């Protein structure tokens, strides 16, 4: 396979509502950021683009991607839109990878956005719920938080996961975001505050859930030849994987666990998979990406993870899917502190277990604290991973609190509605 | 040609929420003639007080929600009737929901397991306080008499 | 828990268009708080009887419809006022249209050329029979007095 | 570049309304057709899929692609949706090409559908018009036929194209479809019938326009290794190209013509391009695809073309964009009969000009006569081109009237709203 690199990236600050800018201008700002960050990069060097946004409903505009393309002055170059629910940004990044890896483009722009403030929050939830089966699921209440709540309730039943463990994910991610000026809702929280926040769908409180946002992000990918010609500090994309599952939770199989290289089928005797407790598509995506990147033990081989924490519960479930810990251990994993940044004080006591190597999860603050402008989110993760691997976080964030010392390899993970589509991408310092 | 032509003025105006930037109220609506297509017998079944599932003719799997072809082996399925009694596989009580459903909050969602059926059935549980619900609870289907040809024509109560 | 709990029956039913398959009438609607964002001054201009275009500060191109950044050179643009007189670049008379606009048919659409402006302006031509319109026809802008903050607040007549 | 082949395809009959089948079942039927046509091909051999449909509005279902994926039993394999307006099917085919060419998949399923009958025709037109600028274009009447009508009016002004020439396109394509049992509206028409049909937007009558449809199509692409392992008669994809233009007609440049290898800039002195008379994105797409396929003179190097004739006018404009004739010659080109099937009688007299080599355009009947279920259309073209190049049309259509003798190389062309996104793909007999 032809090697592919990320060579630049840009994001806007994610905010609750940005009425002064339409989606075209928001992408323009992220794009200008990326161009400014790599002086050799000009619009002429870009061969084409892939555009990512979730829904025609939020944009009130079909083919919004064509309008971004013309606003950036990229006509008559190739462009297309990709969509995969909440995983749209991850799909976009991987499509741009394919465009370069296939030899079609030397330099490809991945660009994404969402403007979710153009309707009220509950209408926005309705739009999102239209991405569940409109005959059999949506009419029951039309509410994704409810679906995730049922999933984690079963996770609690199978594995003993607690709401306090979930709350710690919120404490961690909002705490990390205190040092990320692009984040929408940085905060120093306590487990009590998370649990005493308004209940949305038992057991998930409003602080267990990410918020809707306006925002944009871009990532620029290039072939090895183009990357060396354009200079800067490229980061190599060494693994991509993607997986899917039935649209409806109710239809998913209760079968055998897909095994990662460092696991044994005996670890999971009696466990029915994925049921409604786990994300089979996430496991599948991880397995493919690890194979391509040559990762045999993710807990050892990865230095950080930016994963799709639309809910605190999904971070716990996803750490298991990715093999950072075994299925059923996600609660103890967060208790151990292994996924926290070692240099920050979260006001929490960790269990002291040293079963797992420390691998910071969502050092950026994740979706919980950065916000979740759907089409931009997966690309925002790519930009943070890129800066993290470049060692350039201090330059972009104005502080180095989230910068890991010498990170070698990171993982980004993008996820759609209850796991219907999930992408995993591995990025490595060159 | 009339160079003095004028469109009539109308007093149907536009609601503005802001002037800098200009934010307008903009309404859109759609009427679908939505077909349940191959799943129609399920909805017809609700009107007769029956829960109709699918039975794979290839591998024998039973689906609690209709599915014309088996997800596992790809064979066509036939219709089969499901039991009216099952158990709660998981649950939640929603205090919020989509705009259309806000007026119905709080409501409790359950995934129902039926003995001998390989997948679950999503429905609402009625008549139970949030703290009374638990995994394993036995539940029984009830049907609306005035059928609306929606999946909400069936709901569950504790058995 | 109440095993005899019953949802109330309602007489709001569902319109069926067919029973085999079951085809239901299904309505959906949305209220947007739509922002014109960086293009707001154009719509504010319409209320003052002005056509506001964009002028590129990099390459000097003028755009007949606002555009915050130049499509050719990428520079930011400033606002400029457009002339009210132009010529028909092309045209059509529509005898059908989208559902929302069917009641307005037939209507004539024109793309207007302005001297010294590099792009065109889409509008309606009023007061001309379909066969009276031709490419090159001189046209003049008119504005609704009761502004609706829509692009249709301006229209054209023969000059 | 790694060679990529199309190894099988399937379509449903395109019809005005198919209420007995939802989109999942329609795709299933097309997929089963493709599986049955290549015995070595089983679901296990498929590595992933790309799904193509135009609009969440038509489906009344967001993430409909995830529901197709699970209905086909393809979980937990990778899947994603692509969208590019009317060019969605062409984009899907090229995305599947990228998935294979990049080395990510050995066998990739491209699947597309649209169910347009779930709203009335004028609401459907409104959904389509939401893919024009909703601030500046849609409020004027929300009607794509009007936009195309303005384009061809300018084409007539620049080049002397006539409405009778446009009508001949309808006569040709409906006539070809008489021999295509998958087509929605085969008909023996006359120029007079086309002109005396109800006027939609001057100068386009209802017979100048394609209709809305329900339908599905799939194409299966594979690497060379997989193609030879699976047997059958693969067809090689030798060129892909894509282009874009400003969303709004009004915003397009009036500049210089993009030149193809067999043309000279002097051919077009004084012509401002694309203006609103031509599709710059189509020219860009053709140029890239020709370069990849090594085509230097399309009129000589191509044996047939399946192009996006949503309107009779766009076929004339597109023949120019593709370089089958020069800009301005599209009307004389149709008059010459070069794009008609030589073995059929259309009841027309041709001009007798032998300026152009005969290259049948839309032997399938095109969108005008096959119908246009948006997400399926570009894949339907691929299936017809595949069968044409295999020499298997008699088997699939039940007659050999549309089968060319020994076609060596064909072109398929997919197009979105007034040319915002256009794809061109070259397919060759092995
Ligand atoms: Zn089966
Ligand atoms: Zn400029």
TrEMBL record, chains A, D:
<dbReference type="GO" id="GO:0006869">
    <property type="term" value="P:lipid transport"/>
</dbReference>
<dbReference type="InterPro" id="IPR016039">
    <property type="entry name" value="Thiolase-like"/>
</dbReference>
<protein>
    <recommendedName>
        <fullName>propanoyl-CoA C-acyltransferase</fullName>
        <ecNumber>2.3.1.176</ecNumber>
    </recommendedName>
</protein>
<feature type="domain" description="Thiolase N-terminal">
    <location>
        <begin position="5"/>
        <end position="225"/>
    </location>
</feature>
<dbReference type="InterPro" id="IPR055140">
    <property type="entry name" value="Thiolase_C_2"/>
</dbReference>
<dbReference type="GO" id="GO:0008289">
    <property type="term" value="F:lipid binding"/>
</dbReference>
<dbReference type="InterPro" id="IPR020613">
    <property type="entry name" value="Thiolase_CS"/>
</dbReference>
<dbReference type="Pfam" id="PF22691">
    <property type="entry name" value="Thiolase_C_1"/>
</dbReference>
<keyword id="KW-0446">Lipid-binding</keyword>
<dbReference type="GO" id="GO:0003988">
    <property type="term" value="F:acetyl-CoA C-acyltransferase activity"/>
</dbReference>
<keyword id="KW-0813">Transport</keyword>
<dbReference type="InterPro" id="IPR002155">
    <property type="entry name" value="Thiolase"/>
</dbReference>
<feature type="domain" description="Thiolase C-terminal">
    <location>
        <begin position="280"/>
        <end position="429"/>
    </location>
</feature>
<dbReference type="InterPro" id="IPR020616">
    <property type="entry name" value="Thiolase_N"/>
</dbReference>
<dbReference type="Pfam" id="PF00108">
    <property type="entry name" value="Thiolase_N"/>
</dbReference>
<keyword id="KW-0445">Lipid transport</keyword>
<keyword id="KW-0808">Transferase</keyword>
From TrEMBL, chains B, C:
<dbReference type="InterPro" id="IPR022002">
    <property type="entry name" value="ChsH2_Znr"/>
</dbReference>
<dbReference type="InterPro" id="IPR052513">
    <property type="entry name" value="Thioester_dehydratase-like"/>
</dbReference>
<dbReference type="Pfam" id="PF12172">
    <property type="entry name" value="zf-ChsH2"/>
</dbReference>
<feature type="domain" description="ChsH2 rubredoxin-like zinc ribbon">
    <location>
        <begin position="43"/>
        <end position="76"/>
    </location>
</feature>
<feature type="domain" description="ChsH2 C-terminal OB-fold">
    <location>
        <begin position="79"/>
        <end position="143"/>
    </location>
</feature>
<protein>
    <recommendedName>
        <fullName>Nucleotide-binding protein</fullName>
    </recommendedName>
</protein>
<dbReference type="Pfam" id="PF01796">
    <property type="entry name" value="OB_ChsH2_C"/>
</dbReference>
<dbReference type="InterPro" id="IPR002878">
    <property type="entry name" value="ChsH2_C"/>
</dbReference>
<dbReference type="InterPro" id="IPR012340">
    <property type="entry name" value="NA-bd_OB-fold"/>
</dbReference>
